[in-house]
Amino acid sequence: MANLWLAFDIGTTGAKAALIDGAGQVVRSATRQYSTHTATGGVMEQDAGDWWRAVRETCRALGALDEVDAIALTGQMQDAILVNAAGDPVRPVILYSDTRAHAEAARLPDQLGAARIRELTGNDQDAGSLLAKLAWLQAHEPAALEASRWLLLGAADFVALNMTGAATTDTTTASTTGLMNLATRTALDDSVFAALGLRDCARLVPPITPGGHRVGALTSAAAETLGLPAGIPVYHGPGDAGATTIGAGSGEPGAVYAYLGTSGWIAFTATERAQPGQGVITLAHPAPGRTIQVAPLLTAGGNLDWVRDLFGGGDYDTVIARALDRAPSRLLYLPYLSGERAPFSDPHARGAFVGLGASATRDDLCRAVLEGVVYAYRHALDALIPGATTTLTLTGGGTRSRRWCQLFADVTHLPVAIQADPENVGVRGAILCAQVAHGARASYAAPEFFPIEATLQPDPAHAEHFDRQYRAFREAYPALKPIFAQLA
Known about the structure:
The structure is a single chain. Strands 18-19-17-16-22-23-24 form a seven-stranded mixed beta sheet, sandwiched between helices. The mean pLDDT is 95. The longest helix has 25 residues, at 463-487. 36% of the residues lie in helices and 21% in strands. It has two domains: 4-237, ATPase, nucleotide binding domain (Nucleotidyltransferase, domain 5), CATH 3.30.420; 248-488, 2-Layer Sandwich (Nucleotidyltransferase, domain 5), CATH 3.30.420. The chain is an alpha+beta fold. The chain is globular and about 65 Å long. The protein has helices spanning 48-62, 102-112, 114-121, 130-140, 142-146, 155-164, 171-174, 190-195, 220-226, 240-247, 302-310, 316-324, 362-384, 402-412, 425-437, 463-487, and strands at residues 4-10, 14-21, 26-33, 37-39, 43-46, 70-75, 81-83, 93-94, 150-152, 169-170, 180-181, 186-187, 208-209, 213-217, 233-236, 257-260, 264-270, 281-284, 291-297, 332-334, 352-354, 392-395, 416-419, 452-456. Helix 2 packs across helix 3 (114-121), helix 2 (102-112) crosses helix 4 (130-140) and helix 11 (302-310) packs antiparallel against helix 13.
């Protein structure tokens, strides 16, 4: 197995490239950002060409890459990426967070039956489902479907296609889309597509293989573009939630972790499906017979981005420090800026301040936002793990703020273990999956891949206050739900 890996994570806001040795140690890394197009009606799109340009630019930023032995890929999942036979995008990418297809999603249970959909896919299918997005495309842009050869399901799929010429996706990514039979880990039968009025769409689904599989070798054209030797093996890791689960030390059953990024989730590895009904979704683990149970939050750290920009930007550490210097807030904030997925699914849910008074300052609002995000994680944790949890591992870019991490401990009443080098958790997980898939490691338990930087103990000083506020937080969304629907 390779001694020096070049790993890519094609995320929501940008692409990361990292040179990593076989023990998970980062040699150097680079990132490049790209933009997202938004519009009324829940439209969220990106240009797949921007992903490939970001890959090229990060390679150049890393310098000499002659000693790279292998490439591993991961990235955002549940995208609708239509490409033609030449591999060129037919239209902009419809992102996982795009909710324009809510009307089509509402019709799915009538067409196939809610229980049948859940049995086949492992989950309920909402506006983020590619079943709903395909129905929207068929109704509004049929020419785009007709011009397409492949429907790629995640950003890593598109990069793999550009690197090797092979169209493929991984089981973890496919399990987010509604297009895969979770039991067989193969694409839905043609008859299912036909029952949903999507008869010609089955041909678009690429081959589905477990995360960590070898896609092929880097072509001469891609090698020249990226400044790499031709023929390097390319491994398609699981999509970002799977790669992060592995990289956070939760690839073996039991350990619970939370990811705090622009979006977020609570997750752990299990040997059974999640119980439906509270927005908890079941993903395919790269290993057969295992699942990843995930309670996903559509907007997590993105709430901090929003409130920071609202007040004119500034340094994140300063914004957080000024907010958390205030006393624990009686002001509630609901962090559903783009709808929510867990522990309830509602594309119409929106952000809201509850209890706003004339004395509230900018810092009070910022503190309420930070607390509201943590209450949402506690809500998701309660839905995912009904029983006791002993420790919560926290990873993702949001862990750069130790004080925000302490708030997680205080609100959840759990010790919070902060993973070292959280920015590279996904790329390390993609590499670890490739190593396990090809026999270089016997299991996903590789502590050197996920060292813990610190463990924070909950401070009981404000425990009663946080519990009282959390109860009010749980009551606020049901009270506002009909108003959100009316405004939509």
